[in-house]
Write a structure and sequence with these properties.
InterPro entries: Lipid/polyisoprenoid-bd_YceI, TTHA0802/YceI-like_sf. Keywords: Signal. Pfam families: YceI. This is Polyisoprenoid-binding protein. The protein is mainly beta. It has one domain: Beta Barrel (Lipocalin). The protein has one helix and eleven strands, in the order ββββββαβββββ. Strands 1-4-5-7-8-9-10-11 form an eight-stranded antiparallel barrel. Strand 7 and strand 8 form a beta hairpin. The protein starts with about 25 loop residues before the first strand and ends with a strand.
C-alpha cells in the first residue's frame, strides 16, 4: 500500500524565529524517516498506560525558516502498521473494533494553521481524518532545533508535536470507558530540504 502524506500537519514546519518580516518563502522539506516517529499511549482499565507506535507513515512539509506561521505539513499513517509490541493486540487494534484498517487503511492529518506562541513553540491546528470522520485538532508544537547537521553540515530541522484526541469523536467506541477515550499522541520529526 502506498502511504501518502498527511497527519501531523504543520507539526514540523518552521523555525519560529522572531522576525515579523516575511523574507524567504516556504521550502519543501522531506521527513527523515530514520529519525521520526508517531507514538501514542492510552490508559488501560486505570491500571497502566499502554504505549504504541505506527511503523509506517509518510509526510510532506513546507517549512518557512523565517516565519513558522507560513509553514504547513501533511502526514498519512498506515493504520495497519499499529504496533504495541504484542501480536494479538496489534491484530485487534487493526480490526473493526478499533482502526478497521481493511476499510480505512489511512489516518491523515493536514495542517490548517500554525500560531506562534513563544521563541520555539506554536499551536498547530489541522484536520484529522480517522475511520472516515474528519475533526479539527490542535497540537502543541515545539521547534527542537534548526541548523546544520553536526556531521554532514546539511540543513536540518527537528520538531515535536503533542496533543490529546478523543477516539469516540471518530466513532471508535470499543471498550469505553474501561479503555480510555483519550489518546495521548506524540509526533517527533527530523526534516531536511528536498
Amino acid at each position: 500500500m502506498n502511504v501518502k502524506a498527511l497527519f501531523g500537519a504543520g507539526l514540523l514546519a518552521a523555525s519560529l524565529s522572531t522576525t515579523g518580516i516575511a523574507q524567504a518563502a516556504p521550502e519543501p522539506y522531506a521527513l527523515d524517516m530514520a529519525h521520526s516517529a508517531v507514538v501514542f499511549n492510552v490508559n488501560h482499565l486505570g491500571f497502566s498506560n499502554m504505549f504504541g507506535r505506527f511503523d509506517k507513515f509518510e509526510g510532506d512539509l513546507s517549512f518557512d525558516a523565517d516565519n513558522i506561521e507560513n509553514s504547513s505539513v501533511n502526514i498519512s499513517i498506515d493504520t495497519e502498521s499499529v504496533n504495541t509490541f504484542h501480536g494479538k493486540r496489534n491484530e485487534h487494534l487493526a480490526s473493526p473494533d478499533f482502526f478497521n484498517a481493511a476499510e480505512f487503511p489511512e489516518m491523515t492529518f493536514e495542517s490548517t494553521k500554525i500560531t506562534k506562541t513563544g521563541d520555539n513553540t506554536a499551536k498547530l491546528e489541522g484536520d484529522l481524518t480517522l475511520l472516515g470522520v474528519t475533526k479539527p485538532v490542535t497540537l502543541d508544537l515545539v521547534v527542537n532545533k534548526v541548523g546544520p547537521h553536526p556531521f554532514n553540515k546539511q540543513p536540518l530541522a527537528g520538531f515535536t508535536a503533542t496533543g490529546t484526541v478523543k477516539r469516540s469523536e471518530f466513532g471508535m467506541n470499543y471498550g469505553l470507558p474501561a479503555i480510555s477515550d483519550e489518546i495521548n499522541l506524540q509526533i517527533d520529526v527530523e526534516a531536511t530540504p528536498k
